[in-house]
Amino acid sequence: MKWYQMDVDVVEQKLHVTTKQGLSDKQVDKRRRQDGENRLASEERTSRWLIFLKQFQDFMVLVLLAATLIAGMLGEYVDAIAIIIIVLVNGILGYFQEQRAEKSLDKLKEMAAPVATVLRDGTWQKVLSQDLVAGDVVRVSSGDRVPADIRVTQANHLETEESALTGESLPVMKHASPISKDQLEAQDQVNMGFMNTIVTRGNGTGIVVGTGMRTVMGQIASLMTQTKKTTTPLEHKLAELGKILIAVALLLTALVVLAGVYQGHSVYNMFLAGVSLAVAAIPEGLPAIVTVALSLGVQRMIKKKAIVRKLSAVETLGCASVICSDKTGTMTENKMTVKEVFLNHKTLDVTGEGYKAKGDIYLEQDKVDRNFPNLEQMFLYGMVCNNASLMVKKGHYYVDGDPTDGALLVAARKLDMSHQLQDNYRIIREMPFDSERKRMSVVVEDDNKMRFLITKGAPEVLLPRSAYVMNEHGRKQMQRDDQQSIERAIDNMAEKALRTLAIGMKPLAKNTPLDSVELENDLSFIGLYGMMDPPRQEVKSAIAESREAGIKSVMITGDHEKTARAIARELNLLPEDGMVLDGAQLNAMSIEELRDVIDQVYVFARVTPEHKLKIVEAFQEEGHIVAMTGDGVNDAPAIKASDIGISMGYSGTDVTKEASSLILMDDNFATIKSAIIEGRNIYENIRKFIRYLLASNVGEILVMLLAMLLAMPLPLVPVQILWVNLVTDGLPAMALGLDQPENDVTRRGPRNPKEGIFARGLGFQVISRGFLIGIAALTAFMMAFQGDPDQLIYAQTITFTTLVMAQLIHVFDCRSEHSIFARNPFENRFLVLAVLSSILLLLVVIYWSPLQPIFHTTALGVRDWVLVLGLSVIPSVLFGFSKK
């Protein structure tokens, strides 16, 4: 007998669980040990040995190894062994860089993993989907991804989209009844939910009957494990740049070799020197360092509560010129609190803050209780037409569910109304809230078997559907003056930045068809809730800082235009001449008309998720790079269309998270601003080490080329060239990727996405510093050599040391777009440690006698160091004085 053929109680018995209690922690642990985690098999990873060997597949490295083999065969054992050791050390560093990048990406995948709402030991809680086991009772709602194969036990307009399994894109309506037919295909098992399918409408509960590879999706998992690693636009751009640099480096290296041979140097020596120079000069590690820099930046973002799902988003973040943000929960605390109640044509004040059930209700100065006409009924109906739960954890109250629903529960507690009162009403049918309907309704039956409908939602939706109004004397026909009184109350609440929610009811006969389109008409209007979601304290400063950084902040909300305007004023988001548009105005405007005024608009009120797509398109047509936030399934198209899609980590649906490139763990606007600044800094750090590596490489090639053209001896031997590359290119370049942002990064305008790598003078900085580094090293060689062959090793040591020190000083110059004197060199302790480590390695090969014959070095005296340091500082200090 298949799961879909069983009654719910049979499923419960087979899996030893009840839908009211769920599994115990003990049962969960036991089943997880037996069945493993709820995840699909993934493709096998490349072995560590293969990753290590891959570090040596570069053509120039293979040529160098072949050359060293020849050197060994010719008896040059010391040089051959030294070069092989250096190449091995370089390979090990590359291996660890790649491993670190992979681990960073794995960590991202873990943090972005979907969560499931599960009932355990009688309490609903959120856990990672991979932690589910067979028998778990789960709850799903619109926008969620079904976390495992489930047997549906309750369905409220529950529909799922199962194209991942069946290829059919139309949603499938689900129910909880058993199906007697045999051998049904998955698409016909309409009382089952399948792993990785998407809930497109409604909500429901179910019992997990299959996890991991034991799901229907698991059966076709082999088709889904072939993943293709994609590169970011920046990595692709740098790979293209790398090809050009390789060609230039090989050309210049060939020129060095030919010039050396022409000047009388042996072909063997020049070939080995040329290959060593090519290996050192070609920045083959640039893409790897970029990946590491991106992943390290991503880890910093994680600490700031932002998870980057796509590395390409890091590059785009620095270009963002507009942040379109939801108000509720992002700009506000998402702790909705009822502040006023309007009923019987009177306004009552409600005291108390947040989710603590402490507070009182007043009519002007007089405290009222539950005997106030219609008050108890209004609050009770708000509890019943409700999907939230009020929870306590470590003395702190929080809401599991929609914050608006939570606010109604808290308000009822202030009248000493227990949540257990809800048990007196049996819900027969639920019509869930969605952005199109703007209302939620339940059909309930009380202890006396009386049926009625409760509806809550936007006042402009409920008021036209209300034929009656409740007052002190009971129900009466809605009159024009009643409607005007309610509309005035809505306006008054909106002017106080209160969000309004209306509630009504309708008695039903037993034979009333529950699927009638007229079901929610002819309501009896009971009253209005006026709720406040206070602005987050840090958002005001974040908006000001964003404005200073050239980024426009835009509020998008479903609230009344007056409420939205009041909150925007409080946050200093809306300037005096700033425009506010509402949903009706948006509907009446074409994209072209919206585009003409979009730069003056700061607030969009009464909007639906469908409007968001129009807003994104209008901003993009005006040339903006748009960051768009969202949490619901209907937000996914706008998030996908935006340049930087941002989903809510706490309140966001799985579908929205999947469409996004950035997830906010704390749903906070200030986190978006921090992520954008971090994105700018990551890009600037990548520019820093490109500048550093290329300028160093230009210097190395230049000193060799000029020496050959001037018919001089080799200023550097091959092993020294490789050692320079090892000492200066590795740790210092990596440490630049960890540099803090410059003070003016937050004040610069957004970067143009079409900007080239060498924009803003980077090309000039590379050539000018590289030229001076080469000239300084050659000058050191000429001053030390003075035409005396006996001085050659001493002169090569001086040149070698000058080249290394010039590059290590230059690395501090690369920290600023302005001058080496613009920043405190000790700010980046990682860079200081990296430079000290490089100097130590330099000193070892100069002063440790066993290494001196290998590296062709000799000990230097104090006067020599004065010469070396004097020449080394010239490239960076000279331009430091010449710049503002």
Automatic annotation (TrEMBL):
Keyword set includes Nucleotide-binding: yes
Main location per the UniProt record: membrane
Domain (Cation-transporting P-type ATPase N-terminal): residue spans on this chain: 2-76
Localization per Swiss-Prot or TrEMBL: Cell membrane
InterPro entries: ATPase_P-typ_cation-transptr_C, ATPase_P-typ_cation-transptr_N, ATPase_P-typ_cyto_dom_N, ATPase_P-typ_P_site, ATPase_P-typ_TM_dom_sf, ATPase_P-typ_transduc_dom_A_sf, ATPase_P-type_domA, Cation_transp_ATPase_P-type
Swiss-Prot/TrEMBL keywords: ATP-binding, Cell membrane, Ion transport, Magnesium, Membrane, Nucleotide-binding, Phosphoprotein, Translocase, Transmembrane, Transmembrane helix, Transport
Entry membrane topology: Multi-pass membrane protein
Transmembrane segments: 49-71, 77-96, 244-264, 270-296, 689-711, 717-736, 757-785, 791-809, 830-850, 862-881
Pfam families the UniProt entry points to: Cation_ATPase, Cation_ATPase_C, Cation_ATPase_N, E1-E2_ATPase
Record family assignment: Belongs to the cation transport ATPase (P-type) (TC 3.A.3) family. Type IIA subfamily.
Descriptive protein name: Calcium-translocating P-type ATPase, SERCA-type
Species this chain originates from: Lentibacillus kimchii
